[in-house]
Amino acid sequence: MASSMLSLASASASASASASLSLQENLKGKVKLGSVHFTSCLPGKTNSIIKANHFGRISMSVALNASRFEGIAMAPPDPILGVSEAFRADTDEKKLNLGVGAYRTEELHPYVLKVVKKAEQLMLERGENKEYLPIEGLAAFNKATAELLLGADNPVIKESRIATVQGLSGTGSLRLAAALVERYFPGSKVLLSSPTWGNHKNIFNDAGVPWSEYRYYDPKTVGLDFEGMIADIKAAPDGSFILLHGCAHNPTGIDPTPEQWEKIADVIHEKNHIAFFDVAYQGFASGSLDEDASSVRLFAARGMELIVAQSYSKNLGLYAERIGAINVVCSSAEAASRVKSQLKRLARPMYSNPPVHGARVVANVVGDPALFGEWKAEMEMMAGRIKNVRQKLYDSLMAKDKSGKDWSFILKQIGMFSFTGLNKAQSDNMTNKWHVYMTKDGRISLAGLSLAKCEYLADAIMDSYHNVS
Ligand code: PLA
């Protein structure tokens, strides 16, 4: 036994997984022990445990600290989804999660739309199967989503000039489109607004698409730097892709006016760029599906070719169903069918085909006039609740703050977020002192705020703004 311990010690000291494995094989063959259980804790990298029973069988497990994954560093938490993790770990009852953009009721509970429950009930009654979808997704969904985006009587749809493929919500749809750009427009740049939704940069980085930024937010006016935006789009190499937020710009909540959209379309057209819209909030910004799609429709009406990613996370509350679409508007039906075939080719090795549940929910809701009407009413209700807390937060700040600071920018912003202008240190104070969880760029999700918590939030903002530099 002493010799087996010795040989174990010398073999283990080499601390190599393969050496330990062959040792295990050797021991199996040669060592006969009674009922023994001993552990060798060696200096260095290896701890080995040998167990033997009275039938003479020996098993050994080797826990190696020297991992083959040693070179992989710990990733930082995600700037948005990591906020929810920190929120969950906080035990203070005053805590408020204004990080991720997820709609909550006035009681701050997640909300499943009634119309979604009805659609799901229908699906259960029909006893739908769970067969694979085609690579491009559910046909009824693809039809419904393109019509929702452009309007059913849009010539683009009538002339079959749109390639629509069901995607893994907004993010997956953006990623698939980024892969198309990388493959068929190698070296072309995507221009992102400064600032933009943090994940845009990750998406284009991972797809290997170079990007740069165009000016968007002007901290002096807490508004749009329209001149800067136009100048930067003009200065970009001809044929670049210009990423635009269709409505409710994230994180600023600042959208161009209809006249400004016309000018943006002019420059994109002049420069032979391609507009690449991210539409994650259709119907959720203004409460109207048509109004929130007006930017995209304006470009389509000019006959411009476009890429549009859509998401149903917010407007139908289908966050976890991962349902969205990628649409490529082309100048001919023939081009659209070629583009679609290549989108499918890109999707197949990535995830093969998309999930069916959310697609059926959307198809049922949009395809049924009664359910469609109910959906619009619920969307107006959600958008209305957000507008109410926006107003109450502004009123609370104005009532409390005697410094003369103008908080009216909060009312000018649109959508589920407010960009407060708080810097990182001030945002940290919001979280560390007040248990208000938000992203470090000063963004708060008003969809996670209740009327009852507006006063508390106003106190937290005032303290952070005036007492922390
Ligand atoms: N595009 C924009 C502009 C978004 O704000 C979001 C979500 C998406 C796409 C993607 O959403 P989806 O994949 O769920 O369809 N932005 C959230 C969530 C709401 C997130 O970061 O993932 C946000 O808090 O900013």
UniProtKB/TrEMBL annotation:
Gene3D superfamilies from the UniProt entry: Aspartate Aminotransferase, domain 1, Type I PLP-dependent aspartate aminotransferase-like (Major domain)
Aminotransferase class I/classII large domain segment(s): 94-461
Gene Ontology process terms (BP): amino acid metabolic process
Cofactor(s) the protein requires to work: pyridoxal 5'-phosphate
Pfam families with a match to the protein in the record: Aminotran_1_2 (PF00155)
EC numbers on record: 2.6.1.1
UniProt GO MF annotations: L-aspartate:2-oxoglutarate aminotransferase activity; pyridoxal phosphate binding
UniProt catalytic activity: L-aspartate + 2-oxoglutarate = oxaloacetate + L-glutamate
Record keywords, A-Z: Aminotransferase, Pyridoxal phosphate, Transferase
Function: Amino acid aminotransferase important for the metabolism of amino acids and Krebs-cycle related organic acids. No activity with D-Asp or D-Ala as amino donors. In plants, it is involved in nitrogen metabolism and in aspects of carbon and energy metabolism.
Remaining remarks: In eukaryotes there are cytoplasmic, mitochondrial and chloroplastic isozymes.
Subunit details: Homodimer.
Family label: Belongs to the class-I pyridoxal-phosphate-dependent aminotransferase family.
Protein name as catalogued: Aspartate aminotransferase
